[in-house]
Design a protein that fits this description.
Layout: H1 3-34, H2 39-49, E1 64-66, E2 69-71, H3 77-102, H4 122-177, H5 190-202, H6 208-224, H7 243-246, H8 249-360, H9 384-405
Antiparallel strand pairs: 1-2
Helix pairs in contact: 1-4, 3-4, 3-5, 4-8, 5-6, 8-9
Keywords: Coiled coil
């Protein structure tokens, strides 16, 4: 059952109840008229039922002397005033709900895109991707907050709908009572009527036509106080009030647009969140690819350095081997060379001794004939030490030639 149907059901139930009470009072009034044959009987009857006074009100069994007839009030001013108080309170509450709904503002929320620097390595790219977790969490928080705001707006608007429905039931009841006897509807509390009128004028939720109809109803109750005796109040035709008819169509449109703005913002935030998550996944993939390239380059460089180092080690080993061989040959030659040098001095000593012995033998002098002397140029004779040095140099030259040949 819709809110409107529920409201109409309440109105009909209340109208049916009032109608039954009205029929009951009419039967009571018929009984009173039968007893109008004599003032004594009427006085006794009135003393038994209540009071006899123009403009004095009691319970439903009371009566008043008006226009030479005995009348019973179906409703009394206190009841109407209570309804008007309730009406003013409902209008005030609806004004507060109106302000609460349309005071909600959507906050702007944007994500600053983190660009990847040119030439960034895998570690930098992975760091940027990880930082997007914070952006995704912020977006999710904003989505939840916006959804909560939308839920609050919908809850408040549901209270607006229910408030308008209750207001329609109350206004219909007040309108129904205006057709009772004017003396039963005199409202002494003028401030109450003015308060209701002010709240009606301030409430932008109300449809303009319905607002005018309520204003006219209050005006009719106001005139009951100033009616002269035997005057008949001028009453406007009844208007059927409902929650839907009371609602201003522009306000309803504004509410629908407000809901749409919340829904659009939620969709927008979800798109931003999905795009950020997609970008994060791409960055992680790019970081992995970049890392694989870096590992490949690192391994290739390590291999190149190892090969270069191995080549240098092989070259050094070869040079060391050659140097060792050369050193060994030189050592062998040097070990054999001293033996020859030792023998030479022995031979020289023997030659010297023999020369000395020859010199020691006496030689007979013979007469020397003087002959012309020719100049003889003595060639330098190598000493034993010089001959030994030349021999050693010759041997070294031979060894170097052999080494180079190898």
């Amino acid at each position: 059952m819709s809110i409107f149907q529920k409201g109409m059901t309440d109105v009909l139930k209340r109208a049916d109840r009032i109608q039954r009470e009205r029929l009951k009072k009419q039967k009571q009034m018929a009984s009173v008229r039968k007893l109008q044959a004599g003032m004594a009987v009427s006085s006794l009857l009135l003393l038994g039922m209540g009071q006899v006074a123009g403009g004095t009100y009691g319970a439903f069994t009371d009566a008043e002397d008006y226009r030479d007839q005995l009348k019973a009030c179906e409703v009394f001013p206190a009841t109407i005033e209570k309804m008007l108080e309730e009406l003013r309170a409902d209008l005030t509450e609806l004004s507060a709900l109106d302000r609460e709904v349309f005071s909600v503002k959507l906050a702007n929320h944007s994500i600053k895109i983190k660009e990847v620097p040119s030439g960034a390595d895998s570690e930098k790219i992975s760091s940027i991707a990880a930082s997007l977790d914070g952006d995704i969490n912020d977006l999710q928080t904003k989505i939840s907050q916006t959804q909560e705001q939308l839920g609050n707006v919908e809850d408040v608007w549901a209270r607006v709908d229910q408030g308008l429905t209750d207001l329609a039931v109350l206004v219909n009841e007040i309108q129904f009572n205006k057709y009772y006897h004017p003396n039963c509807l005199e409202i002494d509390h003028a401030g109450l009527l003015n308060g209701v009128t002010n709240e009606v004028n301030k409430l932008s939720l109300l449809d303009t036509h319905m607002k005018n109809s309520i204003g006219q109803l209050i005006k009719e109750y106001r005139q009951m106080k100033n009616l002269s005796d035997h005057a008949v109040p001028e009453l406007s035709p009844s208007v059927q009030f409902s929650g839907e008819s009371l609602l201003n169509s522009e306000k309803h449109k504004a509410y629908q647009e407000l809901k749409k703005s919340f829904a659009d913002r939620i969709d927008e935030l979800n798109v931003q969140k999905d795009n950020t998550a997609t970008r994060q996944a791409k960055l992680y993939k790019l970081a992995d690819e970049k890392f694989a390239e870096e590992e490949k380059a690192r391994l290739a460089k390590e291999k190149e350095e190892e090969e270069k180092k191995r080549a240098e080690e092989e070259k050094l080993a070869e040079e060391q081997k050659k140097a060792a061989e050369k050193k060994e040959k030189v050592k062998e030659k040097s070990e054999s060379a001293p033996e020859e040098k030792v023998e030479q001095p022995v031979e020289e000593e023997e030659v010297v001794k023999e020369a000395e012995e020859v010199i020691e033998e006496p030689v007979e002098e013979e007469p020397v004939k003087e002959e012309p002397v020719e100049e003889v140029i003595e060639e330098p004779v190598d000493t034993p030490e010089e001959e030994e040095a030349e021999s050693a140099a010759a041997e070294e030259a031979v060894i170097e030639e052999q080494t180079d040949g190898e």
